[in-house]
Specification:
8% strand; 3-stranded antiparallel sheet; 147 residues; flat; mainly alpha; single chain
């Protein structure tokens, strides 16, 4: 029983230390880099919420973003890019997010989300907000010289 207590205490101490290190890292970031890290929550909502819905069998059915998986990788890249600085990082951030944003607009404009008649849902708004905030914060970071 003591071995189990020691194991749980060791695991708890390790997790608490890890959480403390992540919190210290986050607090040490500049305000705009914090915006980039916190925008990951918006990206998560963009991926999980349906972007459109259609009525079938007397109920509403949601349609997830067909390119949402790319936003997961963009969010991972954006958080990882807070460790790096310079024009190349800015260019990579802007190109990735603009590619996603333009592709999302093309999907919307061509009505290729689904073949069934649909209406847009609130998740579409998060899909627009996430890359716009990423690009805006990245440009502001570069212009402010915080990188």
């Amino acid at each position: 029983m003591n071995t189990l207590k020691e194991l749980l205490y060791t695991l708890g101490s390790y997790v608490a230390g890890l959480l403390r290190a992540v919190l210290e890292w986050f607090l040490a970031l500049s305000l705009l880099n914090k915006v980039i890290v916190m925008n990951t929550l918006v990206s998560f909502l963009a991926v999980t919420l349906p972007i459109a819905k259609f009525y079938i069998f007397e109920s509403w059915t949601g349609i997830n973003n067909p390119i949402g998986v790319y936003l997961i990788f963009i969010a991972i890249f954006m958080v990882a890019s807070t460790f790096f600085h310079g024009m190349i990082v800015l260019a990579a951030r802007v190109v990735l997010n603009l590619w996603y944003f333009i592709y999302l607009i093309v999907i919307y404009a061509t009505h290729s989300i689904s073949h069934a008649p649909y209406i847009m849902s609130s998740g579409f708004l998060f899909n627009i907000i996430a890359p716009v905030v990423y690009v805006g914060a990245s440009v502001l970071i570069y212009l402010s010289g915080d990188d």
